[in-house]
Amino acid sequence: MSSSRSTSGNNKSDASKSVFETVEPIGARVLIRKDEDKKQTKSGIHLPDKVEIPTLTGRVVTISAQVQSDSDYPIDQYDRVLFNPKHAIPVDFEGDNRLFVVPVEDIVAVIRRETSA
Questions:
Q1: Quick check: 26 and 64 in contact, CB under 8 A?
Q2: What is the count of structural domains for the chain?
Q3: Residue 115, C-beta contacts closer than 8 angstroms, at least 6 positions apart
Q4: Judging by beta carbons within 10 Å of its beta carbon (0-12, 13-18, 19+), is residue 60 exposed, middle or buried?
Q5: Pairwise pLDDT comparison (38 vs 93), residue with the higher score
Q6: Is 106 helix (H, G, I), strand (E, B) or coil?
Q7: Is 67 a member of any domain?
Q8: Would you say the pTM of this structure is higher than 0.85?
Q9: Is 43 inside a domain boundary?
Q10: Is residue 86 part of a domain?
Q11: Which domain holds residue 85?
């Protein structure tokens, strides 16, 4: 005796699968989330909204495969970097307007903390 079993109630349709979009830089580029512009000086003076100090630093979110495989670029994911914004391409992704695709040549420094022994 053979029995047939309906699986239509057990399988989820393709429409109900979660779809995630990502931004993946191609070529010698990295994705950087720019740090917030400073609204206060180091001495504690609050700046008016129109006089913010522009920030050229940010955290590396994603590295292209080309940069990751090249040992000439000492850049890792989550590194804090100083970059030249001249060739940075803004990416408005899911409401995050601080993302930029930056050519690796425009990263001028990696900012690292050293702990004293």
A1: yes
A2: 1
A3: none
A4: buried
A5: 93
A6: helix
A7: yes
A8: no
A9: no
A10: yes
A11: 22-37+50-111
pLDDT, tens digit (0-9, with 9 covering 90-100), for 20-78: 788 899 999 999 999 876 666 677 776 666 655 566 999 999 999 999 999 999 999 99
Say if residue 56 is exposed, middle or buried (CB neighbours under 10 Å; 0-12, 13-18, 19+): middle
> Of the candidates 59, 72, 62, which has an alpha carbon nearest to the alpha carbon of residue 29?
62
Nearest to 35 by CA among 59, 51, 11: 59
Instruction: Tell how far CA 9 is from the center of its chain.
Output: 40
Q: How far is CA 91 from the centre of its chain?
A: 10
In a domain? residue 9: no
- Residue type at 76 in one-letter notation: D
SS3 content of the chain, % helix, strand, coil (to 5): 15, 35, 55
CATH code for the domain in which residue 69 is found: 2.30.33.40
